[in-house]
Amino acid sequence: MYITGIGRTKFGVLSKSLIELAYEAMYNAINDGPIDITDIDAIYVSNFLGGPLNGQLHLNSAIASLLPDMNIPIIRIETACASSSVALNQAIQSLSQFSNVMVVGVEKMTDSKYMNPTDAIAMAADNILDYQNGLIFPASYALIAQQYMLKYGIGHDVLEQVSYLNHKNSNLNPLAHFSYKDVSMEMIRQSPIVASPINLFDCSPISDGAAAAIISKDRCSDRDIEILSSHVSTDSISISQRKDLTSFNATKTAVKKAYAEAGINPDDLDIVEVHDCFTISELIALEDLGLCEPGRSCDMIENGDISIDGRIPVNTDGGLKANGHPIGATGLAQIFEVVTQLRGEAGKRQISDHEVGLAQNIGGIGGTAGITIMRG
Amino acid sequence: MYITGIGRTKFGVLSKSLIELAYEAMYNAINDGPIDITDIDAIYVSNFLGGPLNGQLHLNSAIASLLPDMNIPIIRIETACASSSVALNQAIQSLSQFSNVMVVGVEKMTDSKYMNPTDAIAMAADNILDYQNGLIFPASYALIAQQYMLKYGIGHDVLEQVSYLNHKNSNLNPLAHFSYKDVSMEMIRQSPIVASPINLFDCSPISDGAAAAIISKDRCSDRDIEILSSHVSTDSISISQRKDLTSFNATKTAVKKAYAEAGINPDDLDIVEVHDCFTISELIALEDLGLCEPGRSCDMIENGDISIDGRIPVNTDGGLKANGHPIGATGLAQIFEVVTQLRGEAGKRQISDHEVGLAQNIGGIGGTAGITIMRG
What we know:
2 copies of one chain form a homodimer.
Chain A: E1 2-8, H1 18-32, E2 42-46, H2 50-54, H3 59-64, E3 74-77, H4 83-94, E4 100-107, H5 117-121, H6 137-152, H7 156-170, H8 185-189, E5 193-195, E6 198-199, E7 209-216, E8 225-234, H9 249-262, E9 271-273, H10 279-288, H11 297-302, H12 319-322, H13 327-343, E10 356-363, E11 368-375
Parallel strand pairs in A: 2-3, 2-4, 9-10
Antiparallel strand pairs in A: 1-7, 1-8, 4-7, 5-6, 8-11, 10-11
């Protein structure tokens, strides 16, 4: 199966509504490839916080309103921050009966009149065991960063480099939340503490945005990107139930299956998008994906391995940190970037070798993981 | 493919939490059939209001917490009140790659500390076009009832009979929200108006509860029920976008495909479960499913056709009206009833002929419809 069209909006603090954002991404995806909207057999909609932040659930029917009288199956998936990679996984699965399926992910996080985004995002954690004890997400990831730094003896400077690299990449991405913003190491170092050791520049932003993709059973054009494998795994929701905070079993389980099905190993990857909701999760992802040994991701960063001109470029769009994190759209924005790079259409941020790419998208504190491997 | 296990909780105002309810239904479904929990390849979780009412999203990971180290794909589906028939549809689709899949639907609607259920349920309608203009669900269905009564010249007495029949059936169902409650025509007639012409006994209750099913590729025991077809269709979310309020295109589109795939017609059905969130929607459902001509469902009720001992028994468990409507579980409770009847295990409410059954589950004001046809 193939990705035959991609589209997205700019990410950032946007004045469009949830549905307008979804429409824009869907429109762009349709116009990107040869598949017409009337050829779409089903749609998967990914969204995390439409209920709590926008007072809008039943988004599959809201999308149906954009397509009068089509009456096709439209299904909404919610698996926290992994919603859109899981929606993509389900869309791929649906090709057992359909020819062309659309996936659209959307989130409108700013300007909610219902509640603040931090409390809403906390709904991805265990309400009783985590949230009611103060474990909003920056606090949970601060505990993880503390554990990781203690276990492997690294300092906060490694996290600062992750942040710096992502911002450097987003400056080459006109659609990023932080595009063309000069961010210096000095600004990163001096940014205020959110939950020690995590400071402001360790956190991805609250973004609005949408992204979409068309998935087809058959190849349609020479710009199509083949999907080699897609796998989803889960783990317990509360960090109180984890034996180890420095690695996520859901990522490791999903990627093992994904490598096996694709018939590749980590050395074959030319581009990787990882879920850096906080800088610490980028380090953990590099290790969980098998790109280096546990505790050695700091070397990859130090050696320049993950830079755009490095051995294995990571988050060339700026990642969640700087491209932005409109939650329901994030996993599809990763797909957008991998497809753009594999096609050789990434402009100023184009990588040199671009045959095989991987996207890793997680929900909560690694409670859900979605892995997609693609070939150009 | 086959339904090889079913389980549910009692419906009603319950003191268990969202996760405890889900666990109980899952436990009962596993114990009902020959499939062990370790044989389950994936789980689909259906829930509508976990975010707004319980502060709990990412329910797929919360379910993973009940199954330590299984790390299987668990996916949450939300399509308003049709969530669980759509989750079932996706589970069936997943049998293209899996052998045994669980579907669990759950809702904890009472005792929310976050918001009132009526405002939360309104998130299934268009926030801008419907809710902000006062169209909470009883108001929308009141407009529909007005249109229907005007178009076909029927009085409120037909709706009263629908309510009476459902309560009569729920008295034979020990798991119903209203079990063993004597409800007289007098009580129904004299109940307070909610939104004219809809009175209290035209409305399904606010219920807590869960239901689950195991779906297997291969037949496992002689209690298995075959799934002949499952289809999902959508329509616009706002009633302001509909040309006709007295019929739902999503139901008609889905059931047409479902009959064709199953190779049956309405006359072949021995039992039907319809989505009577309000009594008027039971009348519309009977017509949209082709059980009678448009406007003639009143005859079916008058003639006793839909009674337990009638020509085509409908909502033998009491329907949403009297069995209850814990939204994310409702579609699976319908499946529970059809399977129980087709197996011949329905006790005091057992129908005589029980070969083929259908369940119709809708979301919002018919914005989503899920149809499942089964054979014993």
